[in-house]
Amino acid sequence: MKAIITGMNGTVAPVVADVLAKHDIETVAWDRTKVSTTDESAMRTFLETERPDYFLHIGMGSVSWTEALVRLCQEYKIPFFFTSTVSVFSDDVPAPIDKDAVPDATDEYGAYKIACEQAIQALDPQAKIVRIGWQIGTEAGSNNMVDFFTNEMKQHGVIRASREWYPSSSLLEDTAEALVTILLEHEAGLYQLNGNDRYSMYDLAHALNTLHAKNWTIEPIDEPRRDNRMATDVVLVRPLSERLPL
C-alpha cells in the first residue's frame, strides 16, 4: 500500500511516515520543488502516477491547495486525512475544549486552519480531520516544545514557565502512532488528540529538563493563565503522566 504525505520537511510528517512504514505502507513525499501546489493538472498527473491508497495532508499551504487536493482525492476515491490544531481555538474557549466548540481563532495560523477544516468538511464528509496540540520532540531544531525551551534558554539564560498554563500537548511519537491508528482503523470525522492530563508549562519544562539532561534554569511564573487542553474521545494518545518523569 502507498500514501502520499505533505509536510515531510516539517515536525510531524516524518514521524508519521516512520509509523506508516511499520504497517508496510510506502510513503511518497509531496516535493513542492517538483510538483506544483497551484497547477491542478500537475497535481492530477502526480496522483495518477503514484496511485496512492491514502492522502495525508500534514504540511502547510494555501487553502486553495487544500481544496484542490480534496476534490482530486474524491475524484480518484483516495481517503483524505488532514492534521489541524488546537490553535483553531482562542484562549477564551474554556477547557476541556470539546470538538463541537466553535473555532474562534483570529490569528493568521489559527484562521488558516479553520478555513481548511471548513473547506474539507464542505467538500468531503468522508475525510478525517485530527486536531493536535503542541508536540514534544526530543531535540531542538524543529517546531516542538523542546525547541521552544532551548531557545528560551539561549535568548534569556532562564526559562520562565507559567504554573497556570496547561497546553494541549503530547509526545511526538505518540501523536504519530495515534494519527496512523485513526487513518487505518477509525471512521471519517473530526478527532482531537491531547495527552496532557495534568501538567503546567512549568511542570513540563522540569520534566523535559530531567528527561533530556538539559541543565536548564527554570523559573516559575503565574502568567499567562490559560488552559488550552482539548477533550478527547475515541482515540487517546498516551497520557504524559505515564511518559514523563514527574
From TrEMBL:
Role description: Catalyzes the reduction of dTDP-6-deoxy-L-lyxo-4-hexulose to yield dTDP-L-rhamnose.
Native source species: Exiguobacterium indicum
EC number of the protein: 1.1.1.133
Similarity comment: family membership: Belongs to the dTDP-4-dehydrorhamnose reductase family.
Pathway the protein takes part in: Carbohydrate biosynthesis; dTDP-L-rhamnose biosynthesis
SUPFAM superfamilies: NAD(P)-binding Rossmann-fold domains
Residue ranges of domain RmlD-like substrate binding in the record: 66-223
Protein name: dTDP-4-dehydrorhamnose reductase
Key words of the record: NADP, Oxidoreductase
Entries under InterPro entries matching the protein: dTDP_dehydrorham_reduct, NAD(P)-bd_dom_sf, RmlD-like-bd
